[in-house]
Write a structure and sequence with these properties.
Blueprint (H helix, E strand, L loop, with lengths): L23 H17 L1 H22 L6 E6 L2 E6 L8 H13 L7 E2 L6 H24 L19
Antiparallel strand pairs: 1-2, 2-3
Helix pairs in contact: 2-4, 3-4
């Protein structure tokens, strides 16, 4: 080991390194992330902002009388939503419509995951985008989703083989 180490005055024959020897920048980033989590109480912020988002989305659902047609599930920091048709059955076309309308409003959200960068203004903007998308969703329940959907419906990731 001395032939690759720093204690010998002889020329080094090989590089003696640790598992993360070339990854010091990654370790530094990890240490800084841990420091920020400890000093800024990141976890509490994620839960608080996620709860703000949930309350805003649920208020829009209630306002538009979409209970049972659009549902929000999960922990506040990692919310998912379910899209249901007129009969309140899971629906990929309605999911596609919702995603389409969110994108129109500048929001990409296959689920609702908050980050430490999401302040009240960002959460409020997301809620407004959801409200606008749900207004179209409400119309689609009345008039038919095909009237509002542009393009084919998304497909589930896991589906039976044909």
């Amino acid at each position: 080991m001395e032939l690759g180490g720093l204690r010998s005055r002889a020329p080094r024959v090989f590089l003696l390194s640790t598992t993360h020897g070339a990854e010091t920048h990654c370790l530094a980033a990890a240490l800084e992330t841990i420091r920020v989590y400890r000093t800024d109480d990141v976890v509490s912020v994620l839960w608080r902002q996620g709860e703000r988002l949930r309350r805003g989305v649920e208020a829009a659902i209630a306002e538009l009388q979409l209970e049972g047609h659009f549902v929000v599930l999960g922990r506040p920091c990692n919310l998912v939503y379910g899209t249901r048709d007129r009969e309140k059955l899971p629906s990929q076309p309605y999911r596609t419509l919702f995603l389409q309308e969110l994108v129109r409003r500048g929001v990409i959200a296959p689920s609702f995951v908050v980050s430490f960068a999401h302040g009240n203004a960002e959460i409020d903007r997301a809620v407004e985008a959801v409200r606008g998308a749900l207004m179209v969703y409400r119309k689609a329940l009345e008039d038919g989703v095909e009237r509002y959907l542009e393009g084919p419906a998304v497909k589930p990731v896991f589906r039976p083989r044909v």
